[in-house]
Amino acid sequence: MxxxxxxxxxxTCPHGGTVQAIPADSSxxxxxxxxxxxxxxxxxxxxxxxxxxxxxxCLTVQWVQPATASTKxxxxxxxxxxxxxxxxxxxxxQGPVLILSTQPNVTGQ
Length: 109
Hints:
Blueprint: E1 10-12, E2 18-22, E3 29-30, E4 33-34, E5 41-45, E6 60-65, E7 71-72, E8 75-76, E9 83-87, E10 93-96, E11 98-101
Antiparallel strand pairs: 1-2, 1-11, 2-5, 3-4, 6-9, 7-8, 9-10
C-alpha cells in the first residue's frame, strides 16, 4: 500500500519547483507530520519557467486522483499513488506533481 502524504513529503513540479503543502487541519499526523488532503492548499516555488512567457511557472497543485479508501474528516487523503497537476496562474496544466518521498509508517488506498 502506498504511504500517506504529509507536510514532510517531498514533492516537486516537473521543472524542479518545490511543492509546499499547507493543511487546513493539522490535528492528524503520520510519522510526526500533519496529513494532507486533496482539498488543502499546495503552493509551488522555484519553478524554472519564467513569468511573462509561455509556458508560465507552476504555482499551485490540483489533485485529480486522491486516495480512494482513506479519508480524514470525510475528505480524501493523498498517497504516493495520488495524481496531481501543477497549474500556472492561468490554470493551464503544466505537468504532474512528482512525489519523491513520504513517510512509510502509515499507508492508505
